[in-house]
Recover the amino acids of this structure.
């Protein structure tokens, strides 16, 4: 796994211990095919295989992954020397060998209330694998397991229901997927199973979309790195595979998603400007064609119509607006996670993401789970200045800037409206004083009057179209909602500062602040997602 901002696609492993020796090569081929099927859906992503290194299926998958040049991540239920008591002979040797060759090895956290026995610890390792992976690969005969057990069927069920939660955590969208590789057991009396057959379980389409969206982000990360390398070829050092710890990985993902969000926000605004300008020019060109008889204007109308559809088509294909929002959510979630880790909290941001974000951008939650797998908290630092007070000041300053921007935008719209009104008044006065309205004297010849009326119509139409442009373009920025968000967040962090001053940086308070910040991010995503550019403006 590289610290270049990309998210690894993790394939989790669960399976039986007592494999039939004659099935070994068949199962290895099936595992390779399963991994390649995932690789085909994410060509810009690194694949890592997460396994418990248990004798049998786990070790077989780990060996196959290493043969394919992939990283393996080893999740142990207990310290390795204690774990080794359950192994003997060649599987014991493999345990230490595979742990040594792993890109990361760690002991699983306890997600459920503690109970006596090693089965409980095995179950916690399985829960960790099911929750951290993008898709679970189960070498399984398909037989049901015991409720609350630690076997293959139980872990596959957890993955399918996405129920890998600690008590009190946010509910999670049940959208897991399992690639079952049919695996007969030596101890089973079932003789009709076809070893190596692939059976898919769960919401495979939803899972594939998560992998596809993650790969799309990884592709953008690669482009970002290439762009940086082109600008500064002498200062660019490719990140080594397997380098760095969890904090470094979080920072690299935050930096990349932050930059990509800004890039796509700029492209989104350019799209809005392009659509609005084309629509305005189209309206004015049609007026000139209709009122002034500038017949060649019909060509300009055609060009503007084609331009509108071309911009809209490019927008649909490139998804600038969606990427801007999704990458911003990823960056903000990484930032919250970094603050929690700095404060010494073991809480994972993915576990407290609001339900609306889980459904809207599920790949972000999976990305955080993949990054945080095995991330130990080292030390504890005060986050009062770097998070609470910093965010309070940021939102206060942003509130002032946004209010100023809204006032400026309102002035532009008012000026456009005033000019439209003045042109209308000029037209009204012309008709009363010179055009014969209400019996007034007609002062000019019919030809001159026709020219004056045409000029007034074109001017009125142009300013009306310009007003529509200003109204729709600036309205798309949802500035009133942004102002409201900054005001609420400034108050939140101000109150959090008072609370910390009185009671200290307690774990429940930090988690509550993180939840509130993520909830505000969800609100921001909700109203911004309604402002996707379209031909309706």
């Amino acid at each position: 796994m590289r610290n270049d901002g990309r998210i690894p696609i993790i394939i989790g492993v669960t399976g039986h211990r007592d494999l039939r020796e004659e099935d070994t090569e068949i199962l290895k081929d099936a595992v390779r095919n399963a991994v390649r099927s995932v690789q085909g859906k994410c060509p810009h992503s690194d694949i890592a295989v997460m396994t418990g290194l248990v004798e049998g299926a786990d070790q077989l998958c780990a060996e196959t992954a290493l043969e394919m040049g992939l990283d393996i991540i080893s999740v142990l239920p207990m310290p390795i020397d204690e774990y080794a008591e359950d192994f003997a002979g060649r599987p014991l040797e493999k345990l230490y060998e595979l742990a040594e060759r792993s890109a990361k090895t760690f002991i699983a956290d306890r997600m459920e209330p503690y109970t006596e026995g090693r089965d409980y610890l095995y179950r916690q390792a399985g829960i960790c694998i099911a929750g951290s992976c993008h898709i679970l690969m189960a070498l399984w005969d398909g037989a049901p397991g015991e409720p609350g057990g630690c076997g293959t069927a139980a872990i596959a069920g957890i993955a399918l229901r996405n129920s890998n939660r600690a008590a009190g955590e946010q509910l999670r969208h049940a959208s897991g997927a399992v690639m079952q590789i049919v695996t007969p057991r030596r101890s089973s009396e079932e003789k009709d199973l076809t070893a190596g057959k692939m059976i898919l379980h769960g919401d495979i389409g939803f899972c594939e979309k998560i992998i596809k969206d993650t790969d799309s982000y990884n592709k953008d990360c690669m482009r970002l790195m290439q762009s940086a390398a082109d600008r500064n070829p002498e200062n660019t050092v490719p990140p080594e595979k397997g380098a760095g710890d969890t904090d470094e990985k979080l920072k690299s993902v935050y930096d990349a998603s932050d930059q990509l969000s800004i890039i796509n926000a700029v492209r989104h605004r350019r799209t809005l400007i392009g659509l609005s300008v084309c629509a305005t020019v189209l309206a004015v060109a049609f007026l000139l064609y209709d009122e002034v008889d500038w017949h060649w204007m019909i060509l300009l109308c055609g060009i503007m119509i084609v331009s509108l559809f071309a911009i809209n088509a490019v927008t649909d294909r490139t998804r600038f607006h969606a990427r801007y929002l999704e990458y911003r959510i990823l960056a903000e979630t990484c930032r919250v996670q970094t603050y929690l880790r700095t404060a010494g909290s073991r809480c994972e941001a993915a576990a407290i993401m609001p339900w609306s974000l889980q459904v809207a951008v599920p790949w972000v939650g999976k990305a955080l789970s993949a990054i945080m797998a095995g991330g130990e908290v080292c030390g504890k630092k005060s986050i009062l200045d770097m998070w609470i007070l910093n965010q309070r000041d940021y939102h206060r300053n942003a509130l002032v800037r946004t209010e100023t921007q809204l006032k400026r935008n309102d002035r532009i719209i008012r000026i456009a409206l005033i000019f439209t009104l003045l042109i209308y008044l000029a037209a009204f006065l012309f008709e009363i004083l010179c055009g014969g309205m209400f019996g007034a004297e007609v002062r000019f010849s019919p030809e001159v009057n026709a020219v004056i009326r045409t000029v007034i119509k074109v001017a009125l139409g142009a300013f009306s179209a310009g007003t529509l442009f200003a109204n729709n373009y600036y309205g798309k920025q949802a500035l009133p909602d942004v102002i409201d968000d900054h005001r609420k967040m400034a108050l939140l962090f101000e109150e959090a500062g008072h609370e910390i001053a009185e009671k200290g940086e307690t774990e429940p308070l930090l988690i509550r602040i993180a939840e509130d910040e993520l909830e505000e991010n969800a609100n921001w995503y909700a109203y911004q997602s309604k402002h996707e550019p379209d031909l309706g403006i």
Observations:
- The chain has a mean pLDDT of 85.
